Amino acid sequence: RPWHNAFGVCIMPNITFRGEDGGLIHATAPDGLTILEAARAAGALVESPCGGLGKCGKCRVRVGGDWLLACQAPITDGMEIYMPDSGKANRRVSIVAAGESFDYPIDPYVTGKPNALGIALDIGTTTMVAELIELATGRRLARRSVLNPQTAYAQDVLGRVRFASTPEGLDLLRDCFINAFIGLRNGLALDASARLSDIHEVVYSGNAAMLHLAAGVDPSPLGRYPYRVNLTGGTYLPALRLGLADGATIYLPPFVSAFVGADITSGMLATRLAELPGSTLFIDIGTNGEIAFAHGGEVVAASTAAGPAFEGMNIDCGARAAPGAIERVTIQSDGSADITVIGGETATGICGSGLLDAVAELVRSGIVGRSGRFARQGGGIAGPRQREGKPAYFLTDTVFISQGDIRQVQLAKGAIRSGIDALLDALGVEPGRVDQALIAGSFGFHLRESSLLGLGMLPEAFAGKVRFVGNTSQSGAAAFLLNKGFRDRMRGVTSAARAIDLNDLPDFNKRFIDALGF
């Protein structure tokens, strides 16, 4: 709501964003916007994982001596906004770029072009990984990764679907993606001393929502029943805005369903899931936990809304897997914590793998009971302390696990476990008959089997059967890039796969509640 001075001249508030690195952004914005809205308009990075709903507390900024939630506080003329986490948001995140794969013949879609190159791109909800590959030989020339900049606007899939439900929101998230891709593209070409004009194809691998946003296609049907897609997998798009060779194309692998996307198809390809003997469970643990189960030549798949707890973004001291984040926790016999911090730095927070370790260890040591509540401690054993009138377990003087954090882990763990149990039941398979459990994804690669079993996220019968296969979304994308025959093969696999909507199962709510206990 711009206002006018005495001469009738339209005036808009002047504001300044100041980063912790000292950088300044001066901007004007219409009166009535929130600080978060004004920051987005000005290109200042203020993270809001909950999508501006005022729930996560991660968008705190300082104005004068007051700390405010940027998504709730309105701007005023002359406001100077200090963004304490602006530098941390751009720090290097620990990203698993490589995934399991297999030997296959080189038979690319693009042929007859000298020095032809392609990019295999994993578009994760949290990270993006790109690999530059020589198409005629399969030679890997360069690999780079980056934080997905869309996380600044919403942390999880449904949050981004909501944000992109307007044309303005969709354009903003697509522009975020394009800018991140261009940075990766330029870096890959620089690392390999390659020409951009030689890049002729890009394979996008990611969940259905991420592919909609990357292509600039309205994802809103994904957010409401009956959960449809506006973008069909197994198709090609022109690479018009990617700055590549004339006529370059984008290939999107096929989907199983709206919430079992191309990243799982790529993972099934990279691990040859449908061809494995016996019974194999494939799990991509993240904000949108996707599960595929192969048994007797049949593939059944489902998706669970685990939420952002595994990314640490709705946790009191949550942080991404970057230097300063606690990534490993062991509780000693006296109740004290032994921690490992990424980069060997002073602990400033705890990332998802550290959080699962910590809660599993608290349960094992009896500091947290099977119900998820803190237990009373005595006999000289360290336990929870009071923080603002509520119990919390302190890993360091400043980093702690709250009762609310444990509840978030329970909800996420319950979602994954109930999904696993439902899929096994759908095929009449007892957990003990599962031959192996494949854990995929960058986040999953940092986990420990003992923590997954200790929390009950995986059945006890899976002990010794868990294998961490890394970023198979990216390695599967490379296979699609280098052998065109996999495109038809995996279309057949996904067409034959049976997708189960867990919410339609009559006993799923009870199964979920039963899975909350440790």
What structural keywords apply?
518 residues, alpha/beta, 6-stranded mixed β-sheet, 26% helix
Q: List low-confidence stretches.
A: 1-7, 87-91
How much beta, percentage-wise? 15-25%
Number of helices: 12
Q: Structural class from helices and strands?
A: alpha/beta
The biggest sheet, with number of strands, parallel, antiparallel or mixed sense and barrel status, is: 6 strands, mixed
Helix content: 25-40%
Count of beta strands: 25
Cα separation of the termini:
52 Å
Shape: globular
What strand order characterises the main sheet?
10-9-8-11-13-12
Radius of gyration, in Å, reads: 24 Å
- Residue-averaged pLDDT: 88
Tell me what the structure shows.
With 518 residues, the chain is α/β, with parallel strands linked by helices. It has helices at residues 35-42, 157-163, 167-192, 208-215, 262-271, 352-364, 403-426, 442-445, 449-455, 472-482, 485-496, 508-514; strands spanning 3-4, 10-11, 14-19, 24-28, 60-63, 66-69, 80-83, 117-123, 127-134, 140-147, 199-206, 235-238, 249-252, 279-284, 289-295, 298-304, 325-331, 337-341, 349-350, 385-387, 390-394, 400-402, 436-440, 466-470, 498-499. The chain is 26% helix and 24% strand. The strands form six sheets. Strands 10-9-8-11-13-12 form a six-stranded mixed sheet, sandwiched between helices. Strands 24-23-14-15-16-25 form a six-stranded mixed sheet, with helices on both faces. Strands 4-3-7-5-6 form a five-stranded mixed sheet, covered by helices on one side. Helix 5 crosses helix 10 (472-482) and helix 6 crosses helix 9 (449-455). The termini are far apart.
